[in-house]
Amino acid sequence: MATYGIDLGTTYSCVARVDDTGHAEIIKNAVGDDTTPSVVYFETADSVIVGKDAKANAQLQPDNVVSLIKRQMGKDIEITVHGQRHTPESISALILRELARAAEEIGGEPVRDVVITVPAYFGVAEREATRKAGAIAGLNVLSIVDEPVAAALHYDAISAGGTKTLFVYDLGGGTFDTTVIQVSPAEIKVVCTDGDHQLGGANWDDRIVDFLLETFQQEHPEADGAATSEEFLQELAAAAEEMKKQLSSQQARRFNARYEGAVSKIELTREKFDEITADLLERTRKITERTIATAAEQGVTTFDEVLLVGGSSRMPAVEAMLKGMGFSPRKHDPDLAVAKGAAQYALIESIKVRLPDEDDGTTPGTAVEEIADQLNIPVEKVRALAGKRVATVVPRAFGIKVVDFDERNNEVFSIAHVLKANTSLPARTEPTRFATAYPDQVEIQVEVWEQSGSVESDDLADNAQIADGTISGLPRLPKGSPIDVTFEMELDGLLRVHAVELKTNKDLHIELQIKGGLSDEQVDEFRTAVARYSVSA
Question: What is the pTM of this model?
Answer without folding.
Answer: 0.88
